[in-house]
């Protein structure tokens, strides 16, 4: 029985993770749950899973939780609460389902404590991939991908030698505005941007999908997870989101992982690896599906993906800036402060002002992240 903590338990990935865990009662004991502001849902989860460690976004919310949970449950708050649960709750498996680079310090704390990581929080690898991967290697912990594309690649690789890989092919749905040309993107609404064609997800990743910044984050995530240069990572448009990604090998064989879009499948695989167990997801019926489509990526239509490749190739703090500027720009768009197309402008402008620092320390990353956030908040 593994002791598991879920950071971001009230979000899209967090709730689906708990759904998966509830079907595997002999395999997992929930020892820690961390949420942000959704205290009602957090309390329901505490009553259902009985963790000994709980955290909320701030002390006021934590007080409300303390009043409702049994004595003996430790209720913490803020980033310190996240790192405490990640590193000191006794969890030997931590699911990081937080959104944004907020997940970095707690992921590092979990690694330091020797816990394996189920990683949904791609921003952590984008902002500090070298630190996360180096520390995981030296502590001997596994980083198991939850993101659907990376889970697909992980399954296709199945232990193959890195030298056998010709390239990774990440699939991209095209997002909520895939049928619109660039001119038509000028006045799109927040409500329409939040309508992903295939997946029901949190707001930030849904907007990232519409700008294609999500695929940019995923290209950088793949670079760190699978240790391949950017020249060996490609993106292909695939509107159905049935092929979750592919690997082409040097002998021309292409392996793909397919399934209906349901995050409980990659979440479960990250939890039960190397075992496969039955899933509540609906089986893929290719005969009913009939056809699948693939188109080349259009970097003019989706400049955020071009910026992500450029930042990835620059390396060092460039990807920290790409991520932080994107997080702030998306938050501003969601608040109705800026138009949709300003997201890519802000990322491009903040990156253009930044002098990349190679192999940054954690301190340098946190400083760069703060600088890029301030710039992105002030850029018109
Ligand atoms: N959703 C999906 O299908 C997929 C998501 N991902 C990635 O997984 C990650 C999570 O995405 P998703 O689940 O959609 O996001 P959501 O917005 O649905 O959930 C985010 C979670 O983080 C918590 N949180 C936010 N701010 C804080 C804070 N300051 N302190 C503590 N907790 C906080 C939220 O708490 P609360 O709600 O209580 O405020 C919530 O539990 C992202 O990196 C995303 O890119 C990857 C693949 C698919
Ligand atoms: C489900 C998942 O993994 C998301 O990150 C997904 O990738 C979003 O889809 P697109 O970015 O392809 O629109
Ligand atoms: Mn994905």
UniProtKB/TrEMBL annotation:
Q: Which reaction is catalysed here?
A: 2-C-methyl-D-erythritol 4-phosphate + NADP(+) = 1-deoxy-D-xylulose 5-phosphate + NADPH + H(+)
Q: Which residues form the 1-deoxy-D-xylulose 5-phosphate reductoisomerase N-terminal domain?
A: 4-129
List ligand-binding residues for NADPH. Answer: 10-13, 36, 38, 121, 123, 202
- What Enzyme Commission number does this protein have? 1.1.1.267
Q: Which UniProt keywords apply?
A: Isomerase, Isoprene biosynthesis, Magnesium, Manganese, Metal-binding, NADP, Oxidoreductase
Where are the membrane-spanning stretches? none
Q: Which NCBIfam families match?
A: Dxr, PRK12464.1
Tell me, which GO biological process terms does this entry list? isopentenyl diphosphate biosynthetic process, methylerythritol 4-phosphate pathway involved in terpenoid biosynthetic process
List residues of the 1-deoxy-D-xylulose 5-phosphate reductoisomerase C-terminal domain. Answer: 143-226
Q: What is this protein called?
A: 1-deoxy-D-xylulose 5-phosphate reductoisomerase
Sequence similarity: Belongs to the DXR family.
- Which residues are in the DXP reductoisomerase C-terminal domain? 258-374
Any Pfam family from its record, for instance, is DXPR_C
Recorded metabolic or biological pathway in which this protein acts = Isoprenoid biosynthesis; isopentenyl diphosphate biosynthesis via DXP pathway; isopentenyl diphosphate from 1-deoxy-D-xylulose 5-phosphate: step 1/6
- Positions contributing to Mn(2+) binding: 147, 149, 218
Q: What is the lineage of its organism?
A: Bacteria, Bacillati, Bacillota, Bacilli, Bacillales
Organism listed in the record? Cohnella endophytica
Q: What does this protein do?
A: Catalyzes the NADPH-dependent rearrangement and reduction of 1-deoxy-D-xylulose-5-phosphate (DXP) to 2-C-methyl-D-erythritol 4-phosphate (MEP).
**Gene name as annotated:** dxr
Q: Which cofactor does it need?
A: Mg(2+); Mn(2+)
A molecular function (GO) held by this record is:
NADPH binding
Question: Which residues of the sequence carry a binding annotation for 1-deoxy-D-xylulose 5-phosphate?
Answer: 122, 148-149, 173, 196, 209, 214-215, 218
């Amino acid at each position: 029985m593994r002791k598991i903590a879920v950071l971001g338990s009230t979000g899209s990935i967090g709730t689906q993770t708990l759904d998966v865990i509830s079907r595997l009662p002999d395999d997992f004991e929930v020892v820690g749950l961390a949420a942000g502001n959704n205290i009602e849902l957090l309390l329901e989860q505490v009553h259902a899973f009985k963790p000994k460690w709980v955290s909320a976004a701030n002390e006021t919310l934590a007080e409300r939780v303390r009043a409702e949970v049994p004595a003996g449950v430790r209720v913490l708050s803020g980033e310190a609460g996240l790192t405490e649960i990640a590193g000191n709750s006794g969890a030997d498996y931590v699911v990081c389902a937080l959104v944004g680079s907020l997940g970095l310090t707690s992921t590092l704390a979990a690694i330091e404590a020797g816990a394996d990581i189920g990683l949904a929080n791609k921003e952590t690898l984008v902002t500090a991939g070298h630190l996360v991967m180096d520390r995981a290697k030296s502590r001997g912990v596994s980083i198991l991908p939850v993101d659907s594309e990376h889970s697909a690649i992980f399954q296709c690789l199945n232990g193959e030698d890195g030298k056998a890989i010709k390239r990774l092919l990440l699939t991209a749905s095209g997002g909520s505005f895939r049928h619109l040309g660039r001119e038509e993107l000028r006045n799109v609404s927040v409500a329409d941007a939040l309508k992903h064609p295939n997946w029901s997800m949190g707001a930030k990743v849904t907007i990232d999908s519409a700008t294609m910044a999500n695929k940019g984050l995923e290209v950088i995530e793949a670079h760190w997870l699978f240790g391949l240069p950017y020249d060996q990572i490609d993106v292909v448009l695939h509107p159905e989101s049935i092929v979750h990604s592919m690997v082409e090998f040097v002998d021309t064989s292409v392996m793909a992982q397919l399934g209906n879009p349901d995050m409980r499948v990659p979440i479960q695989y990250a939890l039960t690896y190397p075992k496969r167990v039955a899933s509540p997801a609906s089986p893929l019926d290719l005969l009913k599906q009939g056809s699948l489509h693939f188109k080349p990526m259009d970097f003019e239509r989706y400049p955020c993906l071009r910026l992500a490749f450029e930042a990835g190739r620059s390396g060092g703090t460039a990807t920290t800036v790409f991520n932080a500027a994107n997080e702030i720009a998306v938050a501003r768009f969601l608040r109705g402060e800026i138009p949709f197309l300003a997201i890519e402008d802000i990322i491009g402008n903040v990156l253009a002002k930044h002098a990349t620092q190679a192999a940054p320390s954690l301190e340098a990353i946190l400083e760069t992240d703060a600088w890029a956030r301030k710039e992105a908040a002030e850029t018109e």
